[in-house]
Amino acid sequence: MAIAARSSLLQHVQHLQHLQHLQHVQHLQHPSAPLSTDCRQISPVYNPVMSCLFCRIVAGEIPSSKVYEDDRLFAFTDINPQAPMHVLIVPKVHVATLNDLTAGEDGLVGQMVRRAAALAAERGFAQSGFRTVFNCNAAAGQTVFHVHLHVLAGRTLAWPPG
Ligand code: 5GP
Ligand code: ZN
After folding, report:
1. Ligand 1 site: residues with CB under 6 angstroms?
2. Cα dist. 126→10, 13, 82, 115, 120 in Å?
3. Catalytic residue list contains 148
4. What is the pLDDT of residues 22-44, one digit of tens each?
5. How far is the C-alpha of 9 from the C-alpha of 128, rounded, in Å?
6. Which ligand has its closest atom nearest to the C-alpha of 51?
7. Which of 60, 129, 144, 156 is the most buried (most CB within 10 A)?
8. Residue nearest to atom 24 of ligand 1 (CA)
């Protein structure tokens, strides 16, 4: 394919993905708003990593309210916060679910958990308390298939969770 045609196709795909992201955000804020097709139907060159919402946030392609970054982790405020503090900590490497973690990533998961404690402490929630949650797959409510640790604090959190 000629270079010009490839570049125009890529721009078209990026435009459609951007529209899909806006629709996704609107759906989160107003659950009655419809969601369109998934990106496999939009992109003729579907790539599970670069079509991943959190990979795109880590890459800076989609804006986020960053609260922390190092060479392995990225943390940002949840777009639909469920508590006064609601931060998501994600590994920079794409791992879809907890089921896909390997022994080589044990250290990475430890860093995520310790970063959650550090971010909660920075905001004064170490003693009063905070909650960390990893949702895995549909029945647990996972909607973004890139491992992420929710960190919630600033209100009394009920147990058991819904
Ligand atoms: P899950 O339901 O997969 O455990 O959590 C996904 C979280 O990602 C949800 O709490 C949702 O509000 C959040 N989220 C989804 N899309 C975006 C986005 O584009 N930006 C941000 N900051 N958070 C998002
Ligand atoms: Zn990803």
Report:
1. 25, 28, 53, 64, 76-80, 88, 135, 141-144
2. 46, 44, 18, 12, 6
3. yes
4. 566 665 666 555 554 444 344 44
5. 52
6. 2
7. 144
8. 79
Which domains are seen in the chain, by residue range?
A: 3-153 (3.30.428.10)
Token pair of 59 as six digits = 């890459």
Q: Residue 107's pLDDT is what? A: 98
- Count CB-CB contacts under 10 A for residue 46: 13
pLDDT computed for residue 16 by the predictor: 54
* E strand or H helix at 16: helix 3-29
CA 161 – CA 157 distance, rounded (Å): 8
What's the one-letter identity of residue 160?
Answer: P
How many C-beta neighbours within 10 Å does residue 28 have?
14
